[in-house]
Structure formats: C-alpha cells, structure tokens
Amino acid sequence: MKITPIADSIHLVRFRSQEDLGKTFLRFQEHFESPHFRGRYFTIAQFRQWYTSHSPEGKKTGRFTFYQDWGGFNIPSYVLKPFYKGRFNPLTNSEEKLLQQFQKHKQPYYIIGTYGNHTKDILRHEIAHALFYTNKRYRKEALKVIHSLPRESIVQIYRFFARSKGYHHDVWLDEAHAYIMTLKDLLKEEGIDVSPLKEAHKRLNQLFKKHYRET
C-alpha cells in the first residue's frame, strides 16, 4: 500500500494487486455507495452472500467476483468515521492498515484506490469522483453538463446502474458524470446510445483538464 497526495485534499492509495485493493476497500466503498448496504454496518460474510446472489456475474456463476469486478475505488473521508468508532469491528488487517494511515489527517479529504499499473481511464474516473466531492466549482459545472443531456440518455444510464447492483441511487449523478467522461465505450457495450453523449464527453474532459493537471 502506497499513499500519494495528488491534489488538494485528494489522496491516491496504490496496491500491488487487484485483490489487495478490493479486500481493503470492500466495506469502506460499499458502506458509501452499495444499493443495499449504504449507511449500514455489515460483515464481509454478509456482503459476500448478497453480492454473489445479486451481481450480474454472481447470478451467472454463483461465485463471489467482487475482487475481480472492480479496479478502482473512491470514498470521502467521512466514510471512515464509523470504522474508527468500532461499528465495523472486528476489522480486517487490511482495513486497520488503511485506517492507521489516515488517522491523523484533517477532514474533509478524499481517498481513491487503484492497483498495479492502473489504466489512465480508471485513474481519471476515480479522480473525477474526488473532484466532484472536493471542488464546488467543478461539481457545479459538471452537473450543468449532465442536466443538459436528453432525459432518455440519463434514463438509459440509470437503468444500467440499477442492473449492475453496484451503486446506490444517491450517487448516480456523480457516477453518470464519471462514466460519460471516462467509460463511454463501456456504456455503448451495455446497449446505451452514446451518440447524444459525445458533446457531454468532450465538455467533461475539458472541465477535468481545467481543474486537474495530470502528471
């Protein structure tokens, strides 16, 4: 686990493997944005059972594939509070290590996680979430772009989010902006008409470059 500050109040946590990344972030991330566990306290066993029976791959294979399904994570710092307070005890070793690293950091801040030689799109996707949370001007301009889209485009994207069982509806707007900006091809693979998204894709990437200087 290597932690690097990459912008004001934004910290990148990089892991050697996708499995290490997933095992560390699972309960932090799902407490933040799971359609079933958001705001709840739960064990890893409880999540494994739910995810296996509800995720698209789990339904097909009966296997728990969370550690293979996700290559990046993002959480605002307030998500850590119930973990520090013992609401998720017993903690795993991976969870304890992450909490120790941020124990003395002054809130609010944002944490993103990736692994290995992450792809540029995954990292940009997670940084976009961080900017949406930490930068009011970025958020305001991003929302303006999303709200300018045809209603049918937003409906299609939201239906995909609902099918995926990956996100609570409270974060759909944020996810829509990040998907349109960095994962437009994936939306196309999911049967979404991306033609109306081209201008929004361009504007969101311009907005990203305006507010974040990539290294």
Question: Can you describe what's shown?
Answer:
The chain has 215 residues and is α+β, with helices and mostly antiparallel strands. It has 2 domains: 117 residues, no CATH class; 91 residues, no CATH class. Helix content is 57%, strand content 10%. Strands 1-2-4-3 form a 4-stranded mixed beta sheet, with helices on both faces. α8 packs antiparallel against α12.
Task: Write out key terms for the chains shown.
215 residues, alpha+beta, 2 domains, 12 helices
What is the compact description of this entry?
By secondary structure, the chain is of the alpha+beta class. The protein is built from twelve helices and four strands; from the N terminus they run ββααααβααβαααααα. It has a four-stranded mixed beta sheet, sandwiched between helices.
Spatial sequence of strands, sheet with the most strands: 1-2-4-3
Order of helix and strand elements from N to C terminus? EEHHHHEHHEHHHHHH
Strand content: 5-15%
Low-confidence stretches: none
Write the layout of secondary structure elements.
Blueprint: E1 2-7, E2 10-15, H1 18-33, H2 44-54, H3 56-61, H4 66-69, E3 73-76, H5 81-84, H6 93-102, E4 110-115, H7 120-134, H8 136-147, H9 151-164, H10 172-182, H11 184-189, H12 198-211
Parallel strand pairs: 2-4
Antiparallel strand pairs: 1-2, 3-4
Helix pairs in contact: 1-6, 7-8, 7-10, 8-10, 8-12, 10-12
